[in-house]
Amino acid sequence: MESIEEDRETTERERVLSNPEAIVPAAFVSFKTRWGAAVCAQTQQSSNPTLWLTEWAPEPSNVYWDSLAIPYIELTIRRLLMSVALFFLIFFFMVPITFVQSVANIEGIGKAFPFLKNLIHKEVVKSFIQGYLPGMILKVFLLLIPMVIMLMSKIEGFTSFSSLERISAFKYYLFILVNVFLGSIIAGSAFQQLDKFIHESPAQIPKTIGVSIPMKATFFITYVMVDGWASVAAEVLRVGALVVFHLKNTFLVKTEQDREQAMDPGFLDFSTYEPRIQLYFLLGLVYCAITPLLLPFIIVFFSFAYLVFRHQV
């Protein structure tokens, strides 16, 4: 069995070495001293700064190999294009956020769908629309954003998985800061006060926005409940992972190794959870003085999140 595995590795190595496309213009260098590694990583090794670049290497399991073959000029162009794409993604996503905040209320639904007027004024339906519908619709809009941002980070050419997660987390935080926090405040309250914006001087606009922030406290309470509390509960139940395991176990598992892979619990998605935790912390800081009613919901989230996630890092 060992000889078969060695023959397979030898064949694979020969195939890779004979394929020009499999050879990348990158190398990993080991040094005898940390001083030598530090000097090499922080100094220019060629008269042409784009020809030979040095940086600290990630550990082998952390290397994102697909990015090692990207030339420096192409890398710069990619990052510039992705920065522009991120700008448009963040600020043009305000359009559906504005639509959600303007329609997801009793008056908006009544105007958009007149045939539902009798239904939406029933007490149960009215409570659901006012309490949970805006947060649920916003959550649906945000489901695909982390995957899109991670894809953009991969296109930028970062060479380690940790860098991809860190950059994606930063971008996702900017996204939810603008669209969930600022977007909900501006679209949901400041647009309702459009007459004040028109007739007031520019110096009064910050005051008007400051007045609109407490008006969205109810929305953020429901958002914390729908997004925060529900995500913690879903992490405890892990219904999706359980269903996937049984599907794999039924149709794909043939050996013990396949069974171990099917039972892999996965890992905590840093690029998704960390920005959301920062958003909840920001909500707590903003509303602790002006609307303290939000604080118990934030405290409950962090308490349960600590119990759930402390063993999943």
TrEMBL record:
Organism: Carnegiea gigantea
Domain CSC1/OSCA1-like cytosolic residues, every copy: 11-66
Name by which UniProt lists this protein: CSC1-like protein
UniProt xrefs under Pfam families: PHM7_cyt, RSN1_7TM
MF GO annotations: calcium-activated cation channel activity
Record flagged with keyword Transport: yes
Domain of life: Eukaryota
CSC1/OSCA1-like 7TM region domain boundaries: 78-313
Lineage summary: Eukaryota, Viridiplantae, Streptophyta, Embryophyta, Tracheophyta
Keywords for this protein: Calcium, Ion channel, Ion transport, Membrane, Transmembrane, Transmembrane helix, Transport
Signal peptide extent: none
Any GO CC annotation of this UniProt entry: plasma membrane
TM regions (residue ranges): 80-99, 132-151, 172-191, 279-309
